[in-house]
Amino acid sequence: MEISSVIAQKIVLQLKNVLSQEINFMNSESIIIASTDKSRIGHFHAGADTVLKNKKPLIIDDDSSFKGSKQGINMPIELEDKVIGVVGITGERCKVEKNGIIIKKMTEILIKEDLIKDINIKKHDRSRYIINRILNHHLINSNNESSNVFNYDYTLPHLCIIGEFKTTFNYQYEEIYRIITRYTHTIDDVIFIIIEHKLYLFVQQTSLDQLNVWLKILSDKITSYFNVPYYFGIGPVSDSLVTANQSFDYAANALHWNKLYAEKPYLHFNELDLGLILTSIDKSRISLIQKKILQFIPPKEYEELKEILLVYGEMSKSINKSADKLYIHKNSFQYKLNKLTQYTGYDPKILNDYVCLYVAFLLDYME
C-alpha cells in the first residue's frame, strides 16, 4: 500500500507541531514525498532505501554518508506487518535519537486514522449510491443493470427500514453514524445513509428477534444521546430493486404512524391496521373529512370529547367501564356522549357512526 503525498504532508506538519524539528516522509521507492523542508520533496533518499531493505531504524551522523540524506534518525513505518515507508527526523543524534520510537508510533497512528476515515467515506459513498438507486424511480424503471456500479445483489432478501426523530431539528449526522457503526456487529452488511434527516437502512434479512433487539438498542442509544425520541418504521421483505423501492414506501408509512400514534422504538408495516389506511390519506382530504364530521364541536370542548370517544372504544363501548377509567359518574359520561351526537350528528352508540367519529379524531395525528 502507498501513502499519498497529500496525506504524508499532512502527517509531517502535524508531527512538526509536536517536535519542532524538520520531518521527512519517504515512500516505498525511497523518494521524499513530503517534508517540512519543501526543497527536499521529490529527491531520492539513500538512507530510507537502506531502512526499507533492512526494516530497521537508521541513524545518520554525517550529511555525506547517504545520497540525498542528512544527519538524523530514520524509522520504518509499518502497517499490518509490512513496511510501507520511512519517516525521518533531521538533526544531531543526541537531539533526535530519543524521539525515533515516538515519531514512528505517531506516524503509524495517524496513517491508520486516515485510512479509517477513507474506509468510512467509501462505505458512505457505497451506501448512498445503493439506497439512492432504490429510491429513484427513473433508475428502477430503466432496467439498466449496467448502472449497478457496485454490483450489489438486490435479489437477496432484504429489510428496508427508515428512522427519524419525533420532532425535526438540526443535528450532527456523524453521531448517529457512530452509534450505528458501534452496535451493528450482530447484523451482517448493514447499508445506511441519512438523507434529509431520515435514516435509511438496507439490511440483509435476519431473524425477527435479532432485528427487533438491534433496532431497540439503536432507538434507545440515539434517544438518550439527543434527548429526543427516535423511532423506526420497517417495510416488508424485498427481493429486487423494485420491491425494495416499494418496501421503503411501506417503511415510511409505518414510521409516520409510529411517530404520530404508536410511539414505539420500532413498528413493522405488517403491524399496521387502521394506520395503513390513515397514512395513505392525502393531507388535503384529512382536513375535508375532519371539517365534515367535527367542525361544530366547540374548541374548548374538543380535547375532552375526543378523549371520551377514544376511551369509549378502548373499553369496548361500555359506559360503566369508560366512566370508571376516567373517574367520572356514568351519567356524566353518557351526557358527554350525547353532546358528541348533538355537535356532530353522529351517534357513538351506532357502530358506523362511531367509526366515522373515531377515524376523524385519529386524523388529528396525521396533521
UniProtKB/TrEMBL annotation:
Source organism superkingdom: Bacteria
InterPro entries in the cross-refs: CdaR-like_regulators (IPR051448), CdaR_GGDEF (IPR041522), Diacid_rec (IPR008599), PucR_C-HTH_dom (IPR025736), PucR_C-HTH_sf (IPR042070)
CdaR GGDEF-like domain location: 148-256
Residue ranges of every copy of the Putative sugar diacid recognition domain listed in the record: 4-126
Residue ranges annotated for the PucR C-terminal helix-turn-helix domain, each copy included: 307-362
Protein family: Belongs to the CdaR family.
Protein name (Swiss-Prot/TrEMBL): Transcriptional regulator
